[in-house]
Amino acid sequence: MRPKLTDVAEKAGCSPTTVSRVINNHGYISQKTKDKVFAAMRELNYQPNTLARSLQGKQTKMIGMIVPNITNPFFAELVAGVEQTLADDGYRLLLCDADRDSDKEHRYLQMLEANQVDGIITGSHNLGLEEYQRVGLPIVSFDRDLSDKVPIVTSDNYHGGCLATQALIDAGCQDIYFVGNPSKTGNPTTKRFLGYMDTMASAGLPSHTARSAFYESPLAKSMAMRELLQSDRKLDGVFCSDDLTAILLLKQAQRLGIRVPEDLKVIGFDGTKLVQTYLPELATIVQPIGDLAALLVKLLYERIADPDKHLDKNSYVMPVKLLRNQTI
Amino acid sequence: MRPKLTDVAEKAGCSPTTVSRVINNHGYISQKTKDKVFAAMRELNYQPNTLARSLQGKQTKMIGMIVPNITNPFFAELVAGVEQTLADDGYRLLLCDADRDSDKEHRYLQMLEANQVDGIITGSHNLGLEEYQRVGLPIVSFDRDLSDKVPIVTSDNYHGGCLATQALIDAGCQDIYFVGNPSKTGNPTTKRFLGYMDTMASAGLPSHTARSAFYESPLAKSMAMRELLQSDRKLDGVFCSDDLTAILLLKQAQRLGIRVPEDLKVIGFDGTKLVQTYLPELATIVQPIGDLAALLVKLLYERIADPDKHLDKNSYVMPVKLLRNQTI
After folding, report:
1. Measuring CA to CA, which residue among B161, B8, B55, B80 is closest to residue A98?
2. Which domain holds residue B29?
3. Same domain, B217 and B299
4. Do A104 and B87 lie within an 8 Å CB cutoff?
């Protein structure tokens, strides 16, 4: 049986009125009381009935969006796409730049539980999956498996990894490195890595990896790139799992007098408008950022209309394309 | 005498209850009715009493921020700074990417009038100043003079223009061009241009301008840069009024075989972390983006606490610094 508001009140040790005020964010409630109420809601898996609320005209017309870092051009362009789509429909975007801050991400989920936003789009990488396991909240995920109740939208990272690797092979490379973080579970980079591995194996070529995590500083990444280029390992091609790392690699190659593409061929991943415009020589795999944004919003509207609806399909994979350029 | 809610109702031809519902965004009201009520509020210069509201605990704890383009790294970093400062204080950021859309900007001002946000930070370039002339709304402006009731935060654009020009002169340049849009009133670029003009005049050098507007496409800008470099005008130094335009200029110089800095010296303006990290050779004038963000938020809090308070000081100018690099 579905838990009731009175069950939450009993568990939290407060009145039903207080629970209602927390849920509807009405009047002053101490953070301590809020925490107790949210804990009880979570423990009982209590869900305010969103559909009923929306029929009562209590939609907030606000959507929360959680991104790991708005200053990364990929996320800036994704946010711009989502914001434009929402604005066309009269929705507003609450932006949460969660930069490794799981508390911040957590507070956004609380806002959703408290009916302060109608839904959430999350592209974050912080919280444990269990936080997202609760049923029936209107959440859509970008690029990360959260739970079988949360639709995930992603680019075709595996195919992108294949395309990038094949482009380097076609250009004559034999000793091709993958630069990225292949190990993290639920991370889209993993599929780019798998595409690389399978394509190398099909071509009968040995695979090589240089680890570079998303959250490492650009300086640390630059040093790792320099070390890779200065080592006596054979190396004539590099597939970087993101464009920004590819730019750092190109800088280091330039400083060491390694000619691109003659001595070294480089391809990135992401293909933001910014990088395509200001570094037009970089070969890359282009993610369809505008289409990703539009699909995230469309799926979220469906979850808002009926958060408990069974998902026929959990995962939506959008096509990518190869952009051939001077670096290969 | 200050207009009352009943005056607004009479002017709008509806009941006081309807006006109250519009102001408090409660229940369903048609857009037509909303427009009539807002028009009446504007005509009568009616202000809901924000101070009284905040004492009643009706703060929304949400701040609207209007930027011309979140995909421009400067604004992405400014938004990130504002969002982090607000989050530390329990505020949330509603992001409006107004990209030449004055309707969108207008709707945000309506949200402020309707108590749906506590205040607005605007860095936009669309609306006519008269929209911002109304008294007592908690608004803070970035880089644009809106009205003597709205505090403006800006970098020291004039001094930045002087520093950039003097750096080119010190590096031996004689024929220095300013690339930017010097003519638009209220635009920060104008002061960068004045700094350029005064510094050239002090050095007894002739001034030259190549017009490039903020909103032109990168392709149009690239073509203009190419034309400038290919003309038979004497030219050994360029001060670009923003870093992204400087990058386009460097690309065109590279394609034309013009050596930087030997044949041409280039300096930009903005100094985002992104450009400093991924194009570390570019000389530029660095705006203190984190400090600008913190000051915008601090001044907005003061306006929220008392929107009618007399401003001792309307304009806040933050220092910039010269970053010498390989392009000069």
Report:
1. B80
2. 5-44
3. no
4. yes
What pLDDT score does A49 carry?
55
Fill in the amino acid letter for A305: A
- Residue range A171-175: mean pLDDT, rounded: 96
Whether residues B168 and B274 share a domain: the answer is: yes
Identity of the residue in B93, B104, B111 whose CB atom sits nearest the CB atom of A95: B93
Predicted ipTM of the assembly: 0.84
- pLDDT of A25 reads 64
pTM of the complete model: 0.85
- Residues with Cβ < 8 Å from B108, sequence gap 6 or more? B64, B66, B94, B96, B98, B117, B120, B122
**Cβ separation B104–A93 shorter than 8 A:** no
Chain A interface, Cβ < 8 Å to B: 27-28, 57, 62, 69-71, 73, 76-77, 79-80, 83-84, 87, 92-97, 104, 111, 218, 244, 247-248, 251, 273-274, 277-278, 280
Tens-place pLDDT, residues A11-69: 888 888 888 777 766 667 888 888 888 888 878 877 665 444 444 456 788 899 999 89
Q: Are residues B279 and B169 in the same domain?
A: yes
Q: pLDDT tens digit string along B242-262?
A: 999 999 999 999 999 999 999
Q: What is the C-alpha R_g of chain A?
A: 23
- Report yes or no: B189 and B179 within 8 Å, Cβ to Cβ: no
Do residues A184 and A248 both lie within one domain?
yes
Nearest CA in chain A to B29: A57
Task: Please tell me whether residues B257 and B162 are part of one structural domain.
Answer: yes
